[in-house]
Structure formats: C-alpha cells, structure tokens
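Quick log. Single chain, no ligands specified.
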Amino acid sequence: MNANKSQQYAVGIDFGTLSGRAVVVRVSDGEELGSAVHEYSHGVIETALPGTQVRLGPNWALQSPTDWVDVLRRAVPKALAVSGVDPADVIGVGTDFTACTVLPTTTDGTPLCDLAEFAERPHAWPKLWKHHAAQPHADVINKLAEDRGEPWLARYGGRISSEWEFAKGLQLLQEDPQVYARTDRWIEAADWIIWQLTGAESRNVCTAGYKGIRTEGGYPSRDYLLALDPAFGDFTDKLADELLPLGALAGRLSPQAAEWTGLPTGIAVAAGNVDAHVTAAAADATRPGQMVAIMGTSTCHVMSSDQLAEVPGMCGVVNGGIIDGLWGYEAGQSAVGDIFGWFVDNCVPPAYAGEADRRGISVHTYLEELAAEQPVGAHGLIALDWHNGNRSILVDHDLSAVLVGQTLATRPEDGYRALIEGTAFGTRRIVEAFEEKGVAVEEFIVAGGLLKNRLLMQIYSDVLRRPISVVASEQGPAVGSAIHAAVAAGTYPDVPAAAASMGRRIESAYRPDPDRADRYDLLYAEYRGLHDYFAGEAYGGNGVLHRLHKLKNEVIG
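-> predicted structure:
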C-alpha cells in the first residue's frame, strides 16, 4: 500500500431509501474519482412481501437485506472501475445508512426474513425509517415515560418517534411474539452492514444514541420495559451496550466482503453511521452552530454544539453523536422531496407533462419555471408539510397534510410552490425551536439531492432570512463516509482534521431578498397559526387530523 496521502484512497458507501451509492475519494484532498449507483430491486416494500400474497397494513415500509448486499457486489466494483484507482491503494471503507432502519437477526447476523420459516412474516423483515405503523406503540412509550418522569425523555424533545428502535421493537413483540422470541439481535442496518463487511458485530454511538434511547446512563431501565409489557423486559439484551465512537475502527474487511467488493482483504472498516450525521464532515461542518440540512426524500437537520439543552421535538441530543467531544443535535421532516414527487405523480394534468416533454425537460423543472415567475403570496395558499406525519417538532406521524386557500383559479404551479414554501416554513419552525432554547444556529448548510432545485433553495433562504451555504459535493453522505474511513485507517487523527482536508462547502451560495423575506414573514405567521391548530388538542387545536386518521385505519383495516 502506498504511504503517500495523495496516492491513498477511501471508499464511501451511502445506503439510501431507494438505492445505494459508492464513491472513491482521494484521502489527501477529498477529490471524487469515481462513483456508481445500484437501485434496490425491491425498492420500498409497502403493499405486500416480495413473491407472496402477504399484504402489509397501513403505514408499513420494509426493505430487503439482499438489496443492501447487492450494493457491495455491484456499486463498489463499478465505482472502482470508473475511478481507475488501483484497489491496492484503497486504505479503508466507510458506510452510512438511513435510520432508524432496523431488523431482527439470529446470533450470527442472519436476517430472520432469510429463514424459510419466517419469510412470509412481515415482522421478520427490516423496517425502513419511514415505517410509521408503530405510532400507537410510540404513544404508549411516551405516555408511560411521562407518567413515570423518566429522565431520558427530555433528551429526545419530550417524545420519541414511531420510527425508532423501541417503538418498532414493541410493535414486533405485541403483533408477532414468535418472531420477537426468535430475535437474538435487534440491530440497525447501519451496524448490520458493518457486520457483513467485517464478520463481527459492532454498534455505533450515533444510531444507539438517537434511535435506541441510549444516553450516558444507559438504556431505559428494565423496570420501565416491564411496565410497558411484561414480555419486553429483555429487549435491551437484543441490543448492545458497548458502543464505538464515530470514525473508530470497527474491524477489517473480511475475505467474503473483499470478494464482493473487489477491495483488499484487511483494510480498515469504519464504525457505522447515519446518512445525515456523516454528511456534516463532507461539508466541513464540524464546529458548533453549523446546522446541516440533508434534503432528499425527507430532511434531517443535524448540528454540533458545546451547549446541552432540551429542545422541544428534537430527535435527540447525543454526546459525540456527530463529532466526538460535542453535543450532536438532530431534528427533521419526514417528507420533503417525497411531497414534490407525490404532487407531480398525482396532481399535474397531462397537458403539463406534454409541454414538459415537448421542451425536453422534467415536469418538476417545468413547474419550477412557472412557479418562479410568481411574486410571494400571489397563489393565496398555505401548506402544512405533513404528508408523512411530523417528525419535528410535534413528533406525531398520525398527522396529515393540509392545503388551504384553493379556488377554481388555482393552478398546479401554485400548489407546487406552496408545498415548497410549506417545507421551508417547517424548517424555520425547527430552527426557531433550537434558538428559543439557546442553541444558536450560526450557519445553515444544505446537502442532498434537492440542491439542484434553485427555486427551492432561494425560497428557503428568503423564508429563513439567512444565507444558505451548500455542500460542494452532490454525494455528501458517501463522501462523509469516506472521510470517516480515512480516520479509521489512521490517516487523520480525528474527523474534524479529516473534514478540513477532504470536506468542502460553498459559503452563502444563496442570500435572502429583504422584500421577499418580509412577505414570507406574513405567510409564516399564518403557517404557525395553522400549525398549532391542526397539531391537535395538546396545542389548543381541533384534533380533526387525528380523528380522520383513526377513521381511515378503521375503514381500511
């Protein structure tokens, strides 16, 4: 192996919602030399188990582990081939995953869905981050914790999410106790993929801290778990108490994984990580006050701080959750790009698609062009961005979207722009929640696929009334994973040092227009009123969205 940094390389692998991406990065300066994408053949499993007639209930979202291994088999070798890099010069591999994406396995890491006896049992399959069918279980967890005064609850904004390990685990127990009994290990996909790469189980501080309710005091007590359900007392036995810091060496690439990837046996494999949190390194955003919003199908907001505070509705604050030695905060929106995709797929007339096709552009681009011509407020609409529930600050996935102000004159571009603005208002509410508790947001940085939408980026800058910096790479998570791989390999002493050399961003790429920002202040005030009203009785509202959700589930089963 070459000892010169300029001739050393790391591979970052980003496991997303619909695909996995591998990128080959030069260790000395973060230059991206080759990348490849593998689309999951099963995608998101939402209606029925693959190859069966087994139907899934409302709000289910599963994935197949074979899709993840196929990323190792296909994307990594292709990225290496494209890069022209000699695999012998690759010093390490880092990965990141959506979270909480969690699965039950045997003691050797075999997913239960791969066993013939459980292949047709939905609870044996990995539950994707946006599996929200565990909301009733999250409600029970939250109420009991509040009634008992559990100290850990405040560290998660006062409510844990249906997306997280404990809610999904309690659902598993109560809906399929046989699968629960057979579950030896309940493990985040972020850690499972490291198991496949190294041949040894490990757990990382990030997923355990944010998604597994693991604080410095450990997991919730056995007494609390027994109070939830007498059979749930052993749940934390299926987890792990020894956690690796981010950037740590999780192990060495096994011969099996080397065969899959085309990489040398024995190179460093970094501890597992989450797609959003690892992106901070790609932006060289490792200092307090730098909030990174990773905007794609959903948005995750992450930020490090030297201050510990209890921020309502945050997804969690974890010591070392992003950067070792700092408090890492997380918040998020459960749907952003998914909302725009839904709108284009379901709410745009054929004439628009025809015109976009005639011009050789996408329907999204056509709508952006039309919407960009509008003055702020001209469409007369306000949207609540809850098409997939609310992650922050309400932490309620039984909520649904609201669009008010439509008339017979409303056009598709009006609705499209209103939805973009609604997601921007949701982000502003999150930023305000942090600053109201004394956690300053000094720089707002955007990464992810939605960076390509210039209209969206300018609207966010105007709504937030602040400049927006952007990550220089279109492959932020994968580059961030490669940065962590370089640290695990010992090339850099820590993640901030590696990020300073390998990460980069464009500062203040978008700046707010004062006049538009003033008009958006008026619309945001209306958004806040609707936000609290439709949030439900706890916020002095009506509760109609919860009643509609309950009725829908009663009707469709």
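The radius of gyration is 23 Å.
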